[in-house]
Amino acid sequence: MRGEGAVDVTAALDPVLRVLCGTGDADGDPPAVDLARVRLVCDWIQYRHSFREPIEVRTIEPATAAANGHAPRCAVEIAIDLRRGADEIRAAAPRVLRATAAEPAVPLEGWAPGSAGCVWDFNVLYWQHLRLWEEATGRGYESALPGGRSDARNTDGVRELIGELFAIWDDLAERRALPEELYVVELGVGNGSQAAAFLDTFMEIDRARGREYHRRLHYLMCDYSPHVLELARQAVAGHAGRVSSLVLDAVHPMTALSFLRLKVFLVYISNVYDNLPTDELASLGQREYVVETRAHLPADTAARIAAALPDGVGVDALPGLVRKLLRLGPALLAEAAPGVFADTAGAVGFWRACWEGLRLQERYVPLAGLDTYEIGRGVGGEALRPLLSASGDVRLHASNGAVASFTETLPLLHPYGRLICHDLFVTDPDQYRTGFRGPGKYDGSVVNWVNGPLLAHLGHRHGFDVRFAPFAHRAGSNVQTMTVQVRD
User: Fold this and answer.
1) What is the distance between the alpha carbons of residues 59 and 423, in angstroms, rounded to a whole number?
2) What number of other Cβ atoms are within 10 A of residue 104's Cβ?
3) pLDDT at position 46, please?
4) Could you give the residue ranges of the DSSP H alpha helices within 152-248?
5) 351 and 330 Cβ atoms separated by less than 8 Å
6) What digits encode the pLDDT tens for the residues 37-68?
7) Domains and their CATH numbers in the chain
8) Which are the contacts of 62, defined by CB distance < 8 A and separation ≥ 6?
9) Does residue 161 have a pLDDT over 70?
10) HSE-CB of 40 using CA atoms within 13 angstroms
11) pTM here?
12) Cα separation of 437 and 403, whole Å?
């Protein structure tokens, strides 16, 4: 709000307050909102594409049951995206605020906590059918990242990492405690550039030092997308004898990697946790809530999508087509609905249009208590209490998918092993109070910042030291490096 390019907050809030008071448009009547129960919040949504409109209206469901036959009143939160600018907010205010109690134009699902929403089915669809998406867009998925590449893929960082790994192995070898097989696991291999850089540099350093660690190395590339794994295999073709590849759900690494318990010297993860399902929880007025979401298509978006389909396929058919798309994928959808889609390319076009227009309606539903909420298997909601009760109102990610992946990965580590993860981590709880941390859209996938203090707490509870540091090899990057190893 200060300095060059400062936001004129007054200009952004004025049209909202005018409509709420009934003086903002020709209708003149205020919306059916009790101003005493309105909570106004402002965000700066940094993502170029997100699930948010310039103004969002969220009900805050009452915590008490109905009394004397009268339902308790809901409070309302009105959220404004200041990045959109006063003109866009002014145009949206009458339309949005007069529909506070209205159903979305084309709902695609019922209410559920965020991690159970269909946006994550779209996320799965993207990785399962990435090749079709890239063919339609004409670009690789990494081009959607800031700078068109992952910050974590850096040769200087690779060389430093291998040097630290060799130091550990040299020390164990001197004590005759080094296993014959040396395991390295990479979760989320991207296009294979990280694996190729690691293996090329590893061979170079090993030859220079004469350790012959390369012949004992087993490098496991793991990814959810078969297409991504195939690209990665091509990138490391020169090291085929040392590399294995596994199709793996990063949320549950133990399902495929349990045979490596206590054997892995390095687990390397880059830009994976921010792409895993998560709920959001909030503390408002010293009461805890879970944020429930409902995906929908706005009226104008739905009309535009339906207009591109054959005559007779109206807006009311879109939810069913979306469900079939998420269940079958675009190629089988084209076969199952030949009267709607001429070919796979047509189904991919429908997929892209729905994803671009997809929005999330949100509401706050009270929790009976944090002890009734489960973050993941064996991880109760009480782990979030220090973050939710620190001071004032806050909304944060439970990072359910990241927590599940993290807690299942720790048992894989050798007592001298490490987990290195480059990702979008919140490292200070106050960051949730001062900025928007997702969800956003990266190409066809979902991105959220990851609750670093929660992972650190869980790591400490399991006997691991968890540290965060800014990514060392590119100034100004939002990426943080998390290092995890057994506590001394």
Assistant:
1) 32
2) 17
3) 87
4) 155-174, 193-209, 226-235
5) yes
6) 889 999 999 888 999 999 999 999 997 755 55
7) 1-102 (no CATH), 144-277+382-486 (3.40.50.150)
8) 72, 73, 74, 75, 366
9) yes
10) 13
11) 0.92
12) 17
For residue 257, give the amino acid letter.
Answer: L
How confident is the prediction for the chain on average, in pLDDT? 90
Residues 383/446, Cβ–Cβ less than 8 Å? no
How far is residue 424's CA from residue 238's CA, in Å, rounded to a whole number? 32
> Is residue 72 within 8 Å of 62, Cβ to Cβ?
yes
Report the 10 Å Cβ neighbour count for 144.
Answer: 17
- Looking at residue 84, its pLDDT comes to 87
> Per-residue pLDDT averaged across 113-126, rounded?
97
Token pair for 65 = 């049951």
User: What is the pLDDT, as a whole number, of residue 28?
Assistant: 56
pLDDT tens by residue, 319-376: 999 999 999 999 999 999 999 999 999 999 999 999 999 999 999 999 999 999 999 9
Structure tokens at 398: 């439970």
What values do phi and psi take at 319, rounded to 5?
-55, -40
Cα torsion 282, 286, 287, 288 to 10°: value is 30
Q: What is the mean pLDDT of residues 291-310?
A: 96
pLDDT band of residue 136 (cuts 50, 70, 90) is very high
- CB-neighbour burial class of residue 355 (10 A; exposed 0-12, middle 13-18, buried 19+): buried
Q: Which residue has the higher pLDDT, 75 or 346?
A: 346
**In this structure, what are the phi and psi dihedrals at residue 45, rounded to the nearest 5 degrees?**
-85, 105
Choice among 166-175, 340-349, 384-393 with the minimum mean pLDDT: 384-393
Distances from the Cα of 333 to the Cαs of 133, 138, 340, 444, in angstroms? 15, 22, 9, 18
Residue with token string 């001298």: 416
Dihedrals phi, psi of 181, to nearest 5 degrees: -105, 130
Q: Where are the beta strands (DSSP E) in 207-298?
A: 217-223, 243-247, 264-270, 280-284, 287-297
- For residue 344, the SS3 value is helix
Q: Specify the long-range contacts of residues 30-34, CB closer than 8 Å, at least 24 apart.
A: 31/97, 31/98, 31/100, 32/100, 32/101, 33/76, 33/97, 33/100, 34/73, 34/76
Structure tokens at 465: 């030291």
pLDDT class for 69, splitting at 50, 70, 90? low
Dist CA 432 CA 436 (whole Å): 7
> What is the DSSP secondary structure assignment for residue 251, as one 8-state letter?
T
Burial classification of residue 159, based on how many CB atoms lie within 10 Å of its CB (0-12 exposed, 13-18 middle, 19 or more buried): middle
Both tokens of 293, joined, read 């979401």
Name the strands in the sheet holding 464-470, side by side, starting at the edge strand that comes first in the sequence.
243-247, 217-223, 182-187, 264-270, 413-423, 480-486, 464-470
